[in-house]
């Protein structure tokens, strides 16, 4: 799965809508790059609130990426809703999770990191997605001892040294994806839950270890990203599959 730029210039809601099944979670990898020439148009697609949030960011790089992320999110969602990107009403829950107030059956979630983003789209089920960049300089065993559960630590330490960063991030993004699907955002402490991988390691679950949820398994799919990135998607329920999608100039290609 590669990260691709979404063209923010072609603002045409009459493009054919992207079909999505009830058991399908469609995931898009996005490159958050806009040229100086594209920036004013990208900013013009945003809501007043989105522009104001971008303006509050101190770094020019963060501002550009924030504008790119929200413009590209609107471009993509417009293709599901058949509405112009600018007209889409995107609101937030009290916990901050964005949603489409006029198209309640189209659910989505966004994650961005170091100039890349993932957008997950679902129909009639809540969805969460998270993306992290591998940072080899971080002592992941120390972080796992401090924040994660003993089972996660054992999972990380069982890996070869070169695998440990990816395993640490799998434990991290699985939590973020599940909690973002639930709309709560990361829920601390993190040491009550643990991650289990199944099959070839692309599927797994977050086993919840607290209160009434004790022992409940929440399915997670790890995404086949470029080397150096770890991402996961989670959704409400169990009977769903994740599909990786590609943005084309004239067509939308889908593959697994
Ligand atoms: C909000 C939160 C989910 C963002 O996660 P992150 O890894 O920093 O950033 P990501 O790029 O993955 O996700 C950010 C996007 O998630 C979405 N989002 C925000 N709040 C959300 C929520 N409650 N549920 C689902 N999605 C949410 C937004 O689209 C946001 O992007 P935007 O602000 O540009 O619109 C995360 O910060 C969090 O869990 N916060 C609550 C817990 C916390 O901060 N505790 C700190 C005390 S130690």
Topology:
Blueprint: E1 24-31, H1 39-45, H2 48-55, H3 60-81, E2 90-92, E3 98-100, E4 106-113, E5 116-123, E6 127-133, H4 140-147, H5 150-158, H6 164-182, E7 194-198, E8 203-207, E9 217-222, E10 229-235, E11 241-247, E12 252-255
Parallel strand pairs: 1-11
Antiparallel strand pairs: 1-5, 2-3, 4-5, 6-10, 7-8, 8-9, 9-10, 11-12
Helix pairs in contact: 1-3, 2-3, 5-6
The structure holds coenzyme A.
Question: What is this entry, summarized?
Answer:
With 256 residues, the chain is of the alpha+beta class.
Tell me what the structure shows.
The protein is an alpha+beta fold. It folds into two domains: 24-125, Ribosomal Protein L22, Chain A, CATH 3.90.470.20; 132-234, 4'-phosphopantetheinyl transferase domain (Ribosomal Protein L22, Chain A, Alpha-Beta Complex), CATH 3.90.470. Helices cover 29% and strands 28% of the residues. It has six helices and twelve strands. It is globular. The model is unreliable at 249-256 (pLDDT under 50). It binds coenzyme A. Coenzyme A (COA) is lined by residues 69, 95-98, 109-113, 128, 130, 176, 180, 183-186, 188.
Features:
single chain, 256 residues, alpha+beta, Ribosomal Protein L22, Chain A, 2 domains, 5-stranded mixed beta sheet, 5-stranded antiparallel beta sheet, 12 strands, disordered C terminus, binds coenzyme A
| Number of domain modules | 2
Number of distinct helices: 6
By CATH's scheme, which homologous superfamily of the largest domain applies? 4'-phosphopantetheinyl transferase domain
CA gyration radius, whole angstroms: 18 Å
CATH architecture of the largest domain: Alpha-Beta Complex
Along the chain, the helix and strand elements come as EHHHEEEEEHHHEEEEEE
Tally the beta strands: 12
